[in-house]
Predict the structure of Branched-chain-amino-acid aminotransferase.
Amino acid sequence: MNISITKTTNPKQKPDMNNLGFGTYFTDHMFIMDYTEGKGWHDPRIVPYAPLEMDPASMVLHYGQAIFEGLKAYKAKNGHILLFRPDKNMARVNSSNERLVIPSIDEGFGVQAIKELVNVDSDWIPDAPGTSLYIRPFIIATDPYLGVRPSDTYKFIIILSPVGAYYKEGMNPVKIYVESNYVRAVKGGLGFAKTVANYASSLKAQVEAKHSGYTQVLWLDGIEKKYIEEVGTMNVFFKIDGEVITPSLEGSILPGITRMSTIEMLRKSGIKVTERRITIQELYDAHAAGKLDEAFGTGTAAVISPIGEFNWDGNVISVNGGKIGPVAQNVYDTITGIQSGELEDTFGWTQIVK
Amino acid sequence: MNISITKTTNPKQKPDMNNLGFGTYFTDHMFIMDYTEGKGWHDPRIVPYAPLEMDPASMVLHYGQAIFEGLKAYKAKNGHILLFRPDKNMARVNSSNERLVIPSIDEGFGVQAIKELVNVDSDWIPDAPGTSLYIRPFIIATDPYLGVRPSDTYKFIIILSPVGAYYKEGMNPVKIYVESNYVRAVKGGLGFAKTVANYASSLKAQVEAKHSGYTQVLWLDGIEKKYIEEVGTMNVFFKIDGEVITPSLEGSILPGITRMSTIEMLRKSGIKVTERRITIQELYDAHAAGKLDEAFGTGTAAVISPIGEFNWDGNVISVNGGKIGPVAQNVYDTITGIQSGELEDTFGWTQIVK
């Protein structure tokens, strides 16, 4: 399919590229492709960024049939625009689609659409250290219909947002509240899919944790409330007794692409990484035995978020003296170095936009 | 607050009122009210039904922060327009809002908004037996922002859809597939809230059940997969050994208003109704002992949906010879009679629009 391009005749004024924050500003263009039952995905186009005209009965507004992705484009020093593993995001689109009964997309074409859109808006990519162009592909159900069933029509949309450095003032470890009340997801639910429902479910726990002075929550499994799942909107890793451990994907955990990259990178550098179920009690026991060396989250927004403190039902433990540890620092430096083109990409993770 | 009214200058052609189906046609007007942090809910208005202009970054499209309700208006033979317990729907709006971190609404004002909108579009209310005007209030998060946090802006919208008789060809009991794989919700999640996430989660199970020749699924609890929760988009009741049993609300089940009304009505008529946890095994044991007399679902769309067959992992049982039983028939006749004004409302359930 050819992607038609209609350029804006009224470009926006660019924001202060030194004060971008996250997800607040959007570029001049967006990608849209429609799906109609019987006709398939059609009419891919890059058009000026503008409000969508949505029927108030659009199914996404009522039954949440929607999925999304998040990845970043980086401007390398040599002028190249780099994407980080966009093929993995497009594969996850189809995994999420399958669970939400949304028709699958052509993954290669999805990557092509991202590249063409980023290219059209390439002057929106910030180039200060740590900054990037956040890419948000998403699919929404658009039938104007109030019965509960999968929609017959969808829109696949990509929007772009220039984002600032996540760690402007250094990588200060975060304080994490272990959530014993609310549940994010269980096996048989939507936890492994990148879908709107999981985020809706997380808001209340997040707000309550913030009120108590914590940055994020650590989710426990919804069945026994003892196994560690993920932290806020990130996957989570622990270094215990020289071994790096991350919860295995059991159907309720998002299979993060930064998670996958962290595992691959650490293993290549000779560090033992184990994917298995791990209880919050084991984490606390390891701490009591002096063996919990590091804890950190992984995700697209922050890449790595070191964890300095946990609060589990009032029992507070500090990790690595509240400072970032060497494994987290190494993962951060390596992945961000590859993403920004400052380190050689020996993994074949990056793709050049053009 | 006064509700401003802007009437359409271009009324739609009305659909064939004898072939309405469910949720397909929408009336000439809708109600909208905005929320802005610091300003509260404001600018309530009835305007022509039209597409919403939504920023592609609107939070509802990405993080599913949204809730909805469903109720019906009926045209009584004496010309009155009746609503069925709209105060209960508005109370549930606030219960759902609280879980989704959406600011609460004034419940009385919500009922007033419904009444004014229904009144403006009163010529859309069908009057054939079993038909009604379906009312869909919903709230969506509208901040154009990609960070995961509660929105600072919302829209509360009400749309109306004339709907046909649910049972055009008699109340034929449905076949129900007992779902052992997918999970709708668990305690600590969103199950008790009327929010988009629960419906997104249900689609795949529903499609698979349909492919196997079943109308809906019976959800089991997500923890032990043994307790009965609800059926499809309805609550569920069983008559076992002369007693009517419905699963107790444990945080994962929607507190249905038809469920509440069924319990109140049956108790008033002297039938013992017990709200408690009940396992699927108990249901099958009761059937084996010849004591499972009836099974039926309750919900706004169908009011009562008798169940004639269950399939639990290949074990098929038939209920009441696949026919509707006297309790279900009595509940249906009483509630629909009160809703449509044909029976005296000794409960004080109905409200007259004007």
About this structure: Chain B touches chain A through 65 residues (CB under 8 Å). The first helix of chain B runs from residue 59 to 63.
